[in-house]
Amino acid sequence: MKFTAEQIAGILEGSVDGNPNAEVSKLSKIEEGTQGSLTFLANPKYTPYIYKTKASIAIVDKDFQPEHDIEVTLIRVEDAYKSFSKLLEYYNQVKLNKSGIEQPSFISDTAEYGEDLYLGAFAYIGNNVKIGNNVKIYPNVYIGDNCKIGDNCVLFQGAKVYSDCVLGETVYVHSGAIIGADGFGFAPDENGEYSRIPQTGNVIIEDNVDIGAGTTIDRATLGSTIIRKGVKLDNQIQIAHNVEIGEHTAIAAQTGIAGSTKIGKNCMIGGQVGIVGHITIGDRVRIQAQSGITRNLKNDEAVQGSPALSYNDFNKSYVHFKNLPSLAEQLNNLEKQKSNDK
């Protein structure tokens, strides 16, 4: 699909400096621009590339003033980075704008769905499922009985949603993600054998949540595992039964959260963090990558390490840790000197 500079300027509410009929059909980095591509300039250190890029169109801040002759057509906007991001989202929506029901696929006779459904081949929709408008369900997706899927959701290839789970509006579930598998519930008996504890709850995911590829969110033992609105989950995250994650919290890859832990709003959690069960993490908490969280955290804490310390204490302690070999050598020398003085 091709767009002219004039069309793009209309989408971004910008102005064209150059050929309004210049056409592009792909995106590129400014240093890798080729004929027919669109790029942008936001970081000043990339300014030299604007004079030699082969891209056909470049998005720039409106106050950008070229110091040399320039061939690329410019689209001037208030904020080049934000405008390019907006254009990426627009491009993505166009690219993902599939419709229709492919065959073979299965939709239960008791399922209901709204307008503009896309259902890819080999997808399965169970009994009493309710699907909203403009939902995109890619091939090999499974949606179990009694699930509810809100408007504008996108479930990519191979995603699985077990029975009774609820997705709000504009939820993105990437490939291989599993929502609603059993929580890790087993009880040992007197012989050391484990009996399965039935997991009878569900998962509730509110509006505008993104769930990365390979992430798993377990159903509650009783009640619901809840992911509040605006949460962003990276790839390969494990969220156990009865966990609750507050609004607009972001969690990086390979983090594991044990059962019944409550995480507050607007938290940022780095990659490979381990969080024990049955604790409470406050709002706006910052947890550095590879930390181990074994206690409750108050609002606005920043922690690092395993077990985690306050961020400042960790850095101070780490300085001493790095110096342990030299400190040990000094101590040995003092002991030797003391022995010689006797």
UniProtKB/TrEMBL annotation:
<comment type="similarity">
    <text>Belongs to the transferase hexapeptide repeat family. LpxD subfamily.</text>
</comment>
<dbReference type="Pfam" id="PF14602">
    <property type="entry name" value="Hexapep_2"/>
</dbReference>
<feature type="domain" description="UDP-3-O-[3-hydroxymyristoyl] glucosamine N-acyltransferase non-repeat region">
    <location>
        <begin position="22"/>
        <end position="89"/>
    </location>
</feature>
<comment type="subunit">
    <text>Homotrimer.</text>
</comment>
<comment type="function">
    <text>Catalyzes the N-acylation of UDP-3-O-acylglucosamine using 3-hydroxyacyl-ACP as the acyl donor. Is involved in the biosynthesis of lipid A, a phosphorylated glycolipid that anchors the lipopolysaccharide to the outer membrane of the cell.</text>
</comment>
<dbReference type="Pfam" id="PF04613">
    <property type="entry name" value="LpxD"/>
</dbReference>
<protein>
    <recommendedName>
        <fullName>UDP-3-O-acylglucosamine N-acyltransferase</fullName>
        <ecNumber>2.3.1.191</ecNumber>
    </recommendedName>
</protein>
<dbReference type="InterPro" id="IPR001451">
    <property type="entry name" value="Hexapep"/>
</dbReference>
<keyword id="KW-0677">Repeat</keyword>
<keyword id="KW-0444">Lipid biosynthesis</keyword>
<dbReference type="Pfam" id="PF00132">
    <property type="entry name" value="Hexapep"/>
</dbReference>
<dbReference type="GO" id="GO:0009245">
    <property type="term" value="P:lipid A biosynthetic process"/>
</dbReference>
<dbReference type="GO" id="GO:0016020">
    <property type="term" value="C:membrane"/>
</dbReference>
<dbReference type="InterPro" id="IPR011004">
    <property type="entry name" value="Trimer_LpxA-like_sf"/>
</dbReference>
<keyword id="KW-0012">Acyltransferase</keyword>
<comment type="pathway">
    <text>Bacterial outer membrane biogenesis; LPS lipid A biosynthesis.</text>
</comment>
<dbReference type="GO" id="GO:0016410">
    <property type="term" value="F:N-acyltransferase activity"/>
</dbReference>
<dbReference type="InterPro" id="IPR007691">
    <property type="entry name" value="LpxD"/>
</dbReference>
<dbReference type="InterPro" id="IPR020573">
    <property type="entry name" value="UDP_GlcNAc_AcTrfase_non-rep"/>
</dbReference>
<feature type="active site" description="Proton acceptor">
    <location>
        <position position="241"/>
    </location>
</feature>
<keyword id="KW-0441">Lipid A biosynthesis</keyword>
<keyword id="KW-0808">Transferase</keyword>
<dbReference type="GO" id="GO:0103118">
    <property type="term" value="F:UDP-3-O-[(3R)-3-hydroxyacyl]-glucosamine N-acyltransferase activity"/>
</dbReference>
<keyword id="KW-0443">Lipid metabolism</keyword>
